[in-house]
């Protein structure tokens, strides 16, 4: 991008909205403009590499995660210990749960909240936790398709069948 264009905020906003990686060619001044950076990140979260002053910005990360949970991988690793960040990420991408710190992935209360947000995270739990009836029920209420991931003996349990019936409004 020509130097003249790289300083024109209106042109830059249009460019990064179309291709977030255009942020590479933006003036340093506009790389520090939160709206420009956020627009680029919503298009392509890997554009954070061109706006390193924002890679530790929690507010920007939360805004991006609302739409692109996988963006978590491009930001500072310190956020892997931030439960609110993880919760926002798993809303749109269950795989983000695998990136969370052990402190979060082993905390029963955190796990329950994560499963309420996105039952698909159940498949990333340890084998031991996948046997926990309360977690199974929470995951099924959030995402009944988790049933196919359960062992047959759990699928056929009376309690499991009741949860599925409840989810689908069957008496």
Give an account of the 3D structure.
Helix content is 49%, strand content 0%. The chain has helices spanning 3-6, 9-18, 28-31, 34-43, 58-65, 83-92, 102-105, 108-117, 133-142, 152-155, 158-167. The chain is elongated. The N and C termini lie far apart (63 Å).
Overall residue-averaged pLDDT value = 94
Low-confidence stretches: none
Strand content: under 5%
From the spread of the alpha carbons, the general shape counts as elongated
Query: What separation lies between the terminal Cα atoms?
Result: 63 Å
Radius of gyration: 20 Å
Order of helices and strands: HHHHHHHHHHH
**Strand-pairing-aware structural class:** mainly alpha
- The count of DSSP E runs of length 2 or more, i.e. the number of strands, is 0
Question: How much helix is in the residues?
Answer: 40-55%
The description of the largest β-sheet is: none
**Total separate domains:** 3
Helical stretch tally: 11
Topology:
Elements: H1 3-6, H2 9-18, H3 28-31, H4 34-43, H5 58-65, H6 83-92, H7 102-105, H8 108-117, H9 133-142, H10 152-155, H11 158-167
Helix pairs in contact: 2-4, 5-6, 6-8, 8-9, 9-11
